[in-house]
Amino acid sequence: MRIILLLLLFLSGRLQAQNKLVDSLLAELPKAKTDSARVMIYCNLSKLYVLSDAIKAKEYGQAAEALAKASGLAHGRAKALNILGGAHLVMGEYDRALGCYYTALKIGEQINDTTTLISAYINVGNIYYKLRDTARAVKNYTIASELALKVNDKLRLSNVYNNLGNVYEDKTDYRQALNYYRLAVGLQEEVGDKKNRAVSLLNIGNVLLYFGQPEDGLPYLFKSVRLNEEVQNDMIKMAALGKIATIYRAIGNQEKALKYAKQSLNMALKTESSKKIAEASELMHTIYASMKNYEQAYEYLTLFNQHQEILNSESRKKIESEITAQYETEQKELENQNLKAQREKQAAEISHQQNTLILEGTVILLMLVVLVVLYVSRQRQKTAFTDLQRAHHLMQVQQNEIIKQKNEISSQAVVLREQNEQLEQNSCFKNKVFSIISHDLRGPFFSFKGILSIAQSKALSESKVKQIFELLGKEMDVAMSLLDNVLIWAKAQLEESYVEFEPVSLHLLTEENIKQVRSYAEKKSIKVVNKVTEGTTALTDKERLNFVLRNLLMNAVKFSYQGGEIRVELKEQNGKATITVSDDGRGISSGNLSKLFTDRRFTTLGTSEEKGTGLGLMLCKELVESCNGSIRVESEEGKGSVFSVALPKAKVHVTEEVKLV
After folding, report:
1. If we measure between CA atoms, which residue out of 310, 320, 312, 313 comes closest to residue 100?
2. Separation in Å, CA 492 to CA 135, 460, 622
3. Do the beta carbons of residue 184 and residue 169 sit within 8 Å?
4. Per the database entry, which stretches of residues form a coiled coil (predicted)?
5. For 89-131, how does the pLDDT look when each residue is reduced to its tens digit (9 = 90+)?
6. Each residue of 305-341: pLDDT tens digit?
């Protein structure tokens, strides 16, 4: 009881402190003598509320932006748009946030304000990171870091390092992610930025979860919670509490995990943010499911699905894509206009030079007449002839310059034509991606809807609930697998998605992927054996080879019988390293063998009625060939299958030991 009273007093004190700051700013508002001062007050109110009440933060941000626009205050409007975008981002409204940031970016370019540009590029990068468009995110972060280094803006540079850490964490390059997070903390301690240091500490605590001793991350997370309480940042505190719950769940302390997960969910419900509520409710569902409390688990799964559906609105995705396309089209149009102006300037110069040539020709003719008249004087004739040669040489030099300029114009025309063709290709590719997503993703979600309708229409016994969860799990696996495959394929098609060749340890890569599929194999009592010898490396793209090997292992599990065995082996020959994944399962019929690795999509049920997407092997072939490799299959129906991936060997030697930096 005493602890509850102390907690209530603490929360009351924080609320009073925030209300005091709000009251102070509201009191200053009618006293402000200029529109610029009023815009800054609205901005400060929005920044203050974004930590606890995103709706009010959005209202004050909109007021600041409207006043700045009406008063012609470009700098104030850009600042208001960056803050307003943050409020939209917290609410999960990515499309509106992106529109705010792009407008702020345009204003920053117009007024040549480096600080505004840095903030806008960071914010645009954050949106693309949320949308899983890593290439565009890194591109915007890189521009922001270059500008921040140029003006020695340590505060915003620390934000860039923190965001790059997020990118490498998503790529599972946890050591590189940890390096960036620690660089960010160092800069934030130097400038005394508690708010962002709390975010970086949260990220360090989270990434340590993947280094084998997740409890090492708890001190960083609890320190993040304390800092967030000091700066009254409920959003990051909420996330830190969720990560603490995740670590306690990972080390088997379900009671503490539930305690901190509840705190995180209660804070999420107060924000009314679908994004935060979905994250917190999903964690609660996972913890209750691990505790075998299926009734509570189902309740929080329902809450998660409600808010996830809001976030995944098709119209919002369409608006986001349209905003991105509009901005990039404007950039291309500006480049075309500059090129057209340059061509007109060059045409004027050529015309001037042609007139000069005509004039010089006339001069030469006059000189010839003079030479005829003065023919009697050899000395004068010699002098005139020398002048004639000099003029002729000058004419040749100018003529060569004209030819050179004509060639440059022709080259620029070719570049312009290629850019237009690329724009058309990008448009066709975008339509193709939307077609695949709208066609293939509807099936699994209609299945979800049908299963949930059955569950809601009548009271169900525990066995029926379990059966429904099993159906939902299978449909979710299919939907997630299809979504991952479509995203990998789309990323591989984009111009920004290039192959990153590096020496990759095949033994370590195989071990990592076996760990990811082991839980699926254990459900069917299947043994997965890594026979890949240590020390052999291949020159390839690690992320793409990860996808290929994981798909081959999942297929082997899918088509293996109970108690079977899957073997991963390595052969080296003629500078090639060949990984083979073999099983003694169902095998592939001769009719289906001809359909593998083609655009003709088909799928068959596994030995335990597992569903597939029909995209996996087609993507495997594209990704392996993009890494200068090849893939083939040998199979006999009823006797199992052997898939082989041949890749160039690397000349460097990769050690098996991974050290924490």
Report:
1. 320
2. 11, 45, 9
3. no
4. 324-356
5. 888 888 899 999 999 999 999 999 999 999 999 999 989 988 8
6. 888 888 775 445 544 555 565 555 555 555 556 566 6
Q: How far is 9 from 357, CA to CA, in rounded Å? A: 91
> What is the C-alpha separation between 207 and 200, in angstroms, rounded?
11
Which amino acid is it at 302? T
CA separation for the pair 513, 546 (Å, rounded): 7
Cross-strand partners of 529 = 567
**CA distance linking residue 93 with residue 620, whole number of Å:** 34
**In three state form, how does the secondary structure of 259-292 look?**
HHHHHHHHHHHHHCCHHHHHHHHHHHHHHHHHCC
Name beta bridge partners: 580. 569, 644
Q: What's the rounded Cα separation, in Å, for the pair 290 and 157?
A: 41
Quick one: which of 617, 558, 549 has its CA closest to 578? 549
**What 3-state class would DSSP assign to 127?**
helix
Is the domain of 422 the same as that of 528?
no
**Does the residue 617 lie in any domain?**
yes
Q: How far apart are the first and last CA of the chain?
A: 45
CA–CA dist 115, 93 (Å, integer): 24
User: Does residue 502 sit in helix, strand or coil?
Assistant: strand
Choose the weakest-confidence range: 459-473, 500-514, 646-660.
646-660
Distance CA 51, CA 271 (A): 9
Q: How many CB atoms lie within 10 A of CB 272?
A: 12
Q: How long a stretch of residues is the chain?
A: 661
Which of 415, 440, 465 is the endpoint of a domain?
Answer: 440
Q: CA–CA separation, 628 vs 539, rounded Å?
A: 9
The alpha carbon of residue 543 and the mean position of all alpha carbons in its chain are separated, in whole angstroms, by 14
Q: Is residue 348 part of a domain?
A: yes
**How far from 61 is each of 50, 80, 91, CA to CA, in Å?**
10, 6, 14
Tell me how far CA of residue 408 lies from CA of 121, 350, 414, in angstroms.
Answer: 34, 12, 10
Residues 517 and 435 in one domain: no
Sign of CA dihedral 333, 339, 342, 348: negative
- Side chain identity, residue 551: N
Can you tell me the mean pLDDT for 438-459?
63
Half-sphere exposure of 585 (CA within 13 A, CB side): 32
516 and 641 together in one domain: yes
514 and 634 assigned to the same domain: yes
CA diameter of the chain: 127
Structure tokens at 547: 């996808």
Collapsing DSSP states into helix, strand and coil, what is residue 53? coil
CA atoms within 13 A of residue 514's CA, in its CB half-sphere: 19
**Interatomic CA distance for residues 224 and 196, integer angstroms:** 10
- 596: in domain: yes
Q: Which domain holds residue 512?
A: 499-648
What is the sign of the dihedral through the CA atoms of 198, 202, 203 and 208?
positive
- 550 shares a domain with 413: no
Structure token pair of residue 25: 């700013």
Share above pLDDT 90 across residues of the chain, in percent, rounded to a whole number? 33
Q: Characterize the bridge pairing of strands 576-583 and 502-505.
A: unpaired
DSSP state of 377: -
Please tell me whether residues 420 and 515 are part of one structural domain. no
Instruction: From 395, 422, 440, give the residue that closes a domain.
Output: 440
Q: Please tell me the distance from the alpha carbon of residue 532 to that of residue 511, in angstroms, as a whole number.
A: 9
Number of domains in the chain: 2
Residues 204 and 181: their CA atoms lie apart, in Å, by 6
For residue 521, the domain's CATH number is 3.30.565.10
The predicted model scores a pTM of: 0.41
> Within this chain, do residues 509 and 639 fall inside the same structural domain, yes or no?
yes
> Are 119 and 131 within 8 A, CB to CB?
no
Same domain, 507 and 639: yes
